[in-house]
Each structure stands twice: as structure tokens, then as C-alpha cells.
Specification:
heterotrimer, A mainly alpha, B mainly alpha, C alpha+beta, A: MetI-like fold, B: MetI-like fold
Chain lengths: ~290, ~260, ~350
């Protein structure tokens, strides 16, 4: 018995090693290296590198308050984008799962998640074209309205929110749709037969039962938005400084890698706390 | 309720597609400063054809995407089969380990890779980009192929074994043909992840040999012309076409 | 509580007529079965009464009121679903109390009525369980309690027992009948199980291809089937057919049998296997019919024995009787097949 088991294990190891070795080299070792780096005073490369172990990078975060307030700004951005995505996306998923029938539903579903798989940079760029001063949106609004107005949306926090909602909206539609589709229609019929109105059914039956999908979508949106830097850079202009852009700067402009590593690790900690907090809710809600 | 809901759905679709269509439209507009009224012209596509920087970046992006697809699909399929066929200690842990590359923001993984590759002396450049892309694509391949494997009846393998086929023959003649649609879909996902990847490429590529998205990002920040619209339009058409193909093979979310 | 009347209801789904001019009335307080094979339209009829399906023409009345355009939630019905459709996010008590809360009866009233309903279905101990923690039979009783707790005008049950295994099903039939008697609500249930319909219902409607083939009390429908389909669907039946000759029927094997009075021009007659018996000697007497036959097979099943006999034209008949009443004839030996003429039932040609 032990022999057969070890033979299985050996065969499995042969098939699994290449993939997991790759992940180790490209993901897990780098994360470990980054943790190590975050405790250094300077980049330890080159012959005349001068560095020592220190916790000053973390102290910089907790003592100056600048980075902490930027992290809070990014978290608020994450919450705003997530809430808007849920408010826009959930009704859309509901219509798709419970109102539209047959083959057109599949086609519409595909149409909605298709942009999500296309290039996000290009989609953010497309908003720059739409929102820019004297751009298509302003022309359209001024054509409809009798008086002349300047929207001035480009390079504002609003532009950043619009771009991010556009990027991540399909996530919440996807996860909510899958959860809503799993709700047996006879549950809704049963509630109707007992005299429940639509709003009651939504509130008491549909919402509680699709909560895991909704939450999963919310987490999937919130996590990357907190770490976003490309979208604020392109659409935010001088308002576009967020926690993510500061990390980017440490690696591409300021070259203070150890500080960047510490800031990245604090972000990772936030992400892990959120994932850990949401996982029992997601698991409980499923039963 | 039904009518209101459908209107809502249409508005969402407009929100999702309108900017992309406008961006694409502007690539066919003559004005360099995006001025309206619209005047049709293919100037910007012609300019693209003579822009060597963009062409080299495009070729590099495609080659990296192809290499990523081949490597990630091979390694990912092997791993999926092992995870499906064998039970061994630590299997659950291995499955959980697939999530960090998907769940951790790319900003974190990208900067971590940059630090590590410098630390081991590899530095920035195309090899680093490729290593990073494969790592990001692997979990997607494993998830998609495993989903297809879940519909595979393991007694087919046992039947083939009982007829005297070796483990290798069983894999290549019985298992792989069954999961081929999943492998193709996984490969298309891998291609898309690599071809559309910006964040990790951004941190790992050398200024001289950027991938297409990185080149676009630096152009956008320097001030751009409709040439960028033209190349963006091409990219979005390619990535949507690839995802439509992947959807055909993996049937995600469908209720057939 | 109310009487339900279905008048000339027709419903098509595309080219298929799911209900074709169906009429049936369900008097107040009765227990009714809609019986038919799958695709016969029985579930469509139930869902039309519930209001999930709107008929193309015809009317549904509940308590005298036309409800054709009244939405489900305003029809004041109780419905039990084949899958039970218990809300997985609520406890047993919350499931049962859902309809009461929707009607805003107040917390104390709700608690009292849920308690009573739980007692009636004998689940008082399980009030705070989730549906996933219940057995199939328990879920079935929760679904039933949830359907009747609001005191609806009519209770609609869609294949209420089909998800249960055989032994439990028989227990639940008795239970269902007891509860229906106690609460006295007009109850209509759909089933494809003839025994269930015969056991439970005061009146049965048999459907086939969207049409009501026959409706009536179980005994009438069983003893006096109106068609070969009704006869065979409700259990086993032997059919004599031939041509009318004088007051009798000339069978294909050439023999002439006497017919009951009032059978007019019918050319087919059904008789249940338990109404046929076998004898060694040709029986005599008024109102007794008989035919010469050959024993083909005896199937012994405890108290009862089923005998298959063959008539001279090769047609086979089945007789069931207590073992001690059956002659112990060898396979292949001649026997007499006999019956009471009054038990022959004229049946129409296939509808």
C-alpha cells in the first residue's frame, strides 16, 4: 500500500514540479525577496553598495502619515469604485439571469464580459479620448444642451472613478450572474404563491442567496483597485497621486526600492486581511 | 420591471462599449488633434506601418505571448492532470497556491519580480518579462483545464489501463483528446493574459525593448496622436477575437 | 377555502397544445387528483390555476371570482412544489412564517400559527433547523405546512410525494390525507402515480395530450373507465372487443358474449383482472358470462395469484384472485374464464 502511494506521489511530482517550480521562481521567491528588501537601508547591488538592516522603511509609513493617508485615499477609492460597480452591476446581472431567456442571454452575457478580457490599458486610454476637454463627451453634451458648459472631467478624481468602474464592472456582473443563475426559479415562484411582492422577494430571497457571488465580485474589484496606478496616472492628472502611484515612483523614478518594497508589503497585508475576512463569509453564505 | 431591466442592461452595454467605439472611430479621423467633424482617413494606420518602434514592440509582444502560451499550456496541463488523477499529501495546499498570482495586485507581484530578478543578476529584459507572464498565465490555464477535466470519467482511464495501455499512452490517447477544448481555451487565456499584460511588463522590460502596452503607456503620458488610437484599435480587436474563441472552447458561464 | 372551477381552458406553447379545452370543477373542501402520464398537461393545469401560466382562453374561478388576470401573489393560494422549494437561507420556522410575514399578521400571531402548523405536521422539535439539515420526508412536511399556514383558498400540490422513496411515500399518503381532513382546504394535487390518486383523492381528473379524458370519483373512474386509455392507465384491464350482434358481442374467436343493459352500441368492454375468475367447469346462472380458455402462466404472489390465460384466437387475459379461489390447473390445461356480465364496462373508442 505504501508503495503504491509513493508511486502515485512520484508520478504526480513529475507532472507538477515544472509548473510549481516556475511559480516558485516567479512569484513566491520574489515575494520573499521583497520582504527581505523592505528591511534594507539601500539597494544591495554593485561593488560599492552600502547598506544595513533597518526598520526605517516601515517607520516611514507609520510616522510620517503621508503614506498612510495615501493608502487611506486608495482604500476610499476602492470602496467608491466597488459600491458603484455593485449598484450598477447587480441589477444588470439580475435582469440577465432572471428576465432574459434563451440564447440571447448567452450572447448578452458574453458581450458584457468581453471588454473585461480585453486590454485594460487601451480601455483607460479610450476614456481619455472621451473625457478630454473639447472631447466627444463635451461636444455631445453641448450639442444636446442649449447653453455652453465645460464638464472639465479629465484629470479629476471623477475621471479616475469612471475609468476604474469601466474596467472592473464586468467582474461583479460575472460573479453575481453565476450566483443568481444557481437560484432555483421555484424558490421565487414559491414566494409569489405565498403572496410576496417583487421587492420582498428581492430583499428576502434573491439578495441573501446571491450574497456570496456579490461579495466575491466586490472583493475581486476592491483588491486590484487599491493597488491601481496606471488608471490614476492616465486619467487623474495632478489629482492622480494614490498609494499605487507612489509605489510605482519608488521603482521607476525615485529608485528607493527598499521603501517601495515596504509599501508594497503593507499593501499586501491589507489585501490579505481583506481576503481573510471575506473568506469565512463567502464560505458560510454558500450553505 | 422587465422593460426597465432591459433598458438598464442596454445602458450598461452603452457604457461599456461607447468609449471603445469612440476611441476606434477617432483612429479613422483625419485630425491630429481629434477635432470634429469626422473626416474619414486611413492616415494613422499608414503612419503605423512606418513606425518602427511600434512595429518592433508589436512583434515582441506577439512573440512573448506565443512563447507564454506554449510554456504555460504545457506546464499547466501537466499539473492539471496530476491534480485530477492522483491523490497525495499536500494536494489542497498546491491548489490554494494557485490563487496568489491571480488575487495579489499585479503592482505587488511586478515589483517583487523586479527586485528578485535583479537580485539573481537577471535584471530587466525580455527573458524576465517572459518568466513573469508564464507565472501569471499558469493559474488560468490550470483552472480552465481542470474545469474541463472535471467532466472526464476516470473509469475511461481505468478501462484503457485494463486493456494494457501504459500510463503515457493513456494520457496521450484517452485523457488529452477529451480535454483538448479545455487546453485550447486555456492556451487562448494564456495568450490574452500575456498579450494584454501591462503592469508586470512595465516593471520588467528594458526602456529599449518595451512590449506594446508599455510603449502605449509611455506614449500616452508624453502626449499622443491618433496613431495610438489606431494601434489600440488593432489590439482590442485582436484580444476580443481571442476571447470569443476561448469562450467557444471553454463555454464559461454558459448554461448549455 | 373555496370551490375552484376550470372552464374550457386552452393553452398553447408554440405549436403544441398543452391544454385543450379543459374543464373540471373542484367543490369546496375536497381532495382532488390530476392524473396523467408526463406531458399530459396536468402540471400545466395546476400552474394555470396557480397563476404562473396565463391561459389563452377559458376561465378559472376561485370561490366564484374570475381570477384569469389576477397575479399569483394576489390569488391567495398555497402551493407546494415538487422540489419543495424551501428557502435555504431560512430556518424551518421562518420558511413556514414567510407567507404570514408578507401578510403582516404580527409577530405573536405568526409565532402561534407557525407553532400550530408545525404541530399539525409533527415537526415542532425542528423549528430552528435549516432545510439542509432535514430528511426528505421532513422537508416535504415543511413545504406542506408552509403552503397551508396562511389558510389559503386552495392548496395546490405538484407531485407532492414523488421525491420520497416507496416506503416513506405510503406513510406520507396517510399523513397527507389526515392533514387535509383536519384543515379542510380544497386541495388539488398532480401525480403520475395511479395508486396515489386512487388512495387520496375524492375525485380524479385524468389527462392525456392536454385533454381531460375522464373526471369523477376514484371508484367510478376505476370501475367505469370511459376509454381504453383511462382503463389501462388506472391499472390493469382486459378488453373484449368485437361486433354487435343482437344484444350481445361477437368476439373475434367467434364466441358470443352477453352484455350488460344500457350499453347501447359500444363495441369494446373492459373488465378488471380481479373481476375475472377461473373455473374447471363451465359455470351456469343468470348474468354470468364465460369463455373457454387455456392456462398459460400462474404467477404466485403471496395471498394473490395472477393467472394469464389464452383465448382460442390467441388473445391473452389476466385474472387476479386469492390463491385459494384459483383452480390449480397445469400450464396448457383448459379452464373456463368467467365473469359477472354487469361488471363489463362499455368504453368509447380512443379519444
Amino acid at each position: 500500500m505504501a508503495n503504491i502511494l509513493s508511486q502515485d506521489t512520484r508520478r504526480a511530482a513529475g507532472l507538477l514540479t515544472p509548473a510549481y517550480l516556475w511559480l516558485t521562481v516567479a512569484i513566491f521567491l520574489p515575494l520573499a525577496a521583497m520582504l527581505y528588501f523592505s528591511f534594507l537601508s539601500d539597494v544591495p547591488f554593485g561593488p560599492e553598495a552600502d547598506w544595513y538592516y533597518t526598520s526605517e522603511n516601515y517607520r516611514a509609513f507609520f510616522e510620517t502619515g503621508t503614506y498612510a493617508s495615501l493608502l487611506w485615499k486608495s482604500i476610499k477609492l476602492g470602496l467608491t469604485v466597488t459600491v458603484i460597480c455593485v449598484l450598477l452591476g447587480f441589477p444588470c446581472a439580475l435582469v440577465l439571469a432572471k428576465v432574459i431567456q434563451g440564447r440571447s442571454r448567452e450572447a448578452l452575457f458574453l458581450l458584457i464580459i468581453l471588454p473585461f478580457w480585453s486590454n485594460s490599458l487601451v480601455r483607460i486610454f479610450s476614456w481619455a479620448i472621451v473625457l478630454r476637454g473639447n472631447g466627444v463627451l463635451e461636444l455631445a453634451v453641448n450639442w444636446v444642451l442649449p447653453f455652453d458648459i465645460r464638464l472639465g472631467l479629465m484629470f479629476t478624481p471623477t475621471a479616475v472613478v469612471i475609468g476604474l468602474v469601466h474596467s472592473y464592472l464586468p467582474y461583479v456582473i460575472l460573479t453575481s450572474y453565476l450566483a443568481l443563475q444557481a437560484i432555483d426559479n421555484s424558490l421565487i415562484e414559491a414566494a409569489r404563491s405565498m403572496g410576496a411582492k417583487r421587492l420582498t422577494i428581492l430583499w428576502r430571497i434573491i439578495l441573501p442567496l446571491s450574497m456570496p457571488g456579490l461579495l466575491a465580485g466586490a472583493v475581486l474589484i476592491f483588491v486590484p483597485v487599491v493597488g491601481s496606478f496606471m488608471e490614476p496616472r492616465i486619467l487623474g492628472g495632478r489629482f492622480g497621486t494614490y498609494y499605487g502611484t507612489v509605489i510605482e515612483d519608488q521603482f521607476t523614478a525615485v529608485f528607493n526600492w527598499p521603501l517601495g518594497a515596504a509599501l508594497s508589503f503593507i499593501l499586501l497585508a491589507v489585501v490579505l486581511v481583506i481576503l481573510a475576512l471575506s473568506s469565512p463569509i463567502l464560505r458560510n453564505a454558500r450553505t | 420591471m422587465g422593460v426597465l431591466g432591459c433598458i438598464w442592461l442596454v445602458l450598461i452595454l452603452v457604457f461599456l462599449y461607447a468609449p471603445i467605439l469612440i476611441m476606434a472611430m477617432m483612429s479613422f479621423n483625419e485630425s491630429q488633434f481629434y477635432q470634429l467633424p469626422f473626416k474619414f482617413s486611413l492616415d494613422w494606420y499608414e503612419a503605423l506601418a512606418s513606425n518602427d518602434a511600434i512595429k518592433t514592440a508589436a512583434i515582441r509582444s506577439v512573440l512573448i505571448a506565443i512563447a507564454t502560451t506554449v510554456i504555460a499550456t504545457t506546464l499547466g496541463t501537466a499539473a492539471s492532470i496530476a491534480l485530477f488523477r492522483y491523490s497525495f499529501p499536500g494536494k489542497r495546499v498546491l491548489q490554494v497556491l494557485l490563487f496568489p498570482p491571480i488575487a495579489i495586485p499585479w503592482l505587488i507581484t511586478g515589483t517583487a519580480m523586479l527586485i528578485f530578478f535583479f537580485g539573481i543578476g537577471l535584471g530587466r529584459g525580455t527573458p524576465s518579462v517572459l518568466i513573469g507572464h508564464v507565472a501569471l498565465a499558469l493559474p488560468y490555464v490550470i483552472v480552465v483545464v481542470s474545469a474541463r477535466l472535471a467532466t472526464f470519467d476516470p473509469t475511461l482511464e481505468e478501462a484503457a489501463r485494463s486493456l494494457g495501455a501504459s500510463s503515457w499512452t493513456v494520457t496521450m490517447r484517452v485523457t488529452v483528446p477529451w480535454i483538448l477544448p479545455g487546453i485550447i481555451a486555456g492556451g487562448l487565456f494564456a495568450f490574452a493574459v500575456s498579450f494584454d499584460q501591462f503592469v508586470v511588463s512595465y516593471f520588467l522590460s528594458e526602456p529599449g525593448d518595451a512590449t506594446l502596452p508599455v510603449l502605449i503607456y509611455t506614449s500616452i503620458r508624453k502626449g499622443f496622436t491618433p496613431e495610438i488610437n489606431a494601434v489600440s484599435t488593432i489590439i482590442i480587436v485582436i484580444s476580443m477575437a481571442i476571447m470569443l474563441l476561448a469562450a467557444r472552447f471553454s463555454n464559461f458561464g454558459g448554461d448549455r | 377555502m373555496a370551490e375552484v372551477v376550470v372552464e374550457n381552458v386552452t393553452k398553447s406553447f408554440g405549436p403544441m397544445k398543452a391544454l385543450d379545452n379543459v374543464s373540471m370543477d373542484f367543490p369546496d373542501g375536497g381532495f382532488f387528483a390530476l392524473l396523467g402520464p408526463s406531458g399530459s398537461g396536468k402540471t400545466t393545469l395546476l400552474r394555470t390555476i396557480a397563476g404562473f401560466i396565463l391561459s389563452d382562453s377559458g376561465h378559472i374561478r376561485i370561490g366564484g371570482e374570475k381570477v384569469d388576470r389576477v397575479p399569483v401573489e394576489k390569488r391567495d393560494i398555497g402551493m407546494m412544489f415538487q422540489s419543495y422549494a424551501l428557502f435555504p437561507n431560512m430556518t424551518v420556522a421562518d420558511n413556514i412564517g414567510f407567507g404570514l410575514r408578507v401578510r403582516r399578521v404580527g409577530a405573536s400571531e405568526e409565532t402561534r400559527r407557525v407553532g400550530e402548523a408545525l404541530e399539525l405536521v409533527r415537526l415542532s422539535d425542528l423549528a430552528h433547523r435549516k432545510p439542509s439539515e432535514l430528511s426528505g420526508g421532513q422537508r416535504q412536511r415543511v413545504a406542506l405546512a408552509r403552503a397551508f399556514v396562511t389558510n389559503p383558498r386552495v392548496l395546490l400540490l405538484d407531485e407532492p410525494l414523488s421525491a420520497l422513496d416507496k416506503a416513506l411515500r405510503v406513510d406520507m399518503q396517510i399523513e397527507l390525507k389526515r392533514i387535509q381532513r383536519e384543515i379542510g382546504i380544497t386541495t388539488i394535487f398532480v401525480t403520475h402515480d395511479q395508486d396515489e390518486a386512487l388512495t387520496l383523492a375524492d375525485k380524479i381528473g385524468i389527462l392525456k395530450d392536454g385533454r381531460m379524458v375522464q373526471a369523477g370519483p376514484p371508484r367510478d373512474v376505476y370501475d367505469r373507465p370511459a376509454s381504453t386509455f383511462a382503463a389501462e392507465f388506472l391499472g390493469e384491464a382486459n378488453v373484449f372487443d368485437g361486433t354487435r350482434e343482437g344484444g350481445g358481442l361477437r368476439l373475434t374467436d367467434g364466441s358470443l358474449i352477453a352484455l350488460p343493459e344500457g350499453s347501447e352500441t359500444a363495441q369494446s368492454f373492459a373488465i378488471r383482472p380481479e373481476n375475472l375468475s377461473l373455473a374447471q367447469e363451465k359455470p351456469n346462472g343468470d348474468g354470468i358470462g364465460s369463455l373457454q380458455a387455456q392456462m398459460v402462466q400462474r404467477v404466485f404472489a403471496g395471498a394473490m395469484t395472477t393467472c394469464v390465460v389464452e383465448l382460442s384466437d390467441g388473445r391473452r387475459m389476466k385474472a387476479i384472485a386469492l390463491d385459494r379461489d384459483m383452480p390449480h390447473a397445469e400450464d396448457g390445461s383448459p379452464v373456463w374464464l368467467t365473469w359477472k356480465t354487469a361488471q363489463l364496462t362499455p368504453i368509447g373508442s380512443e379519444p
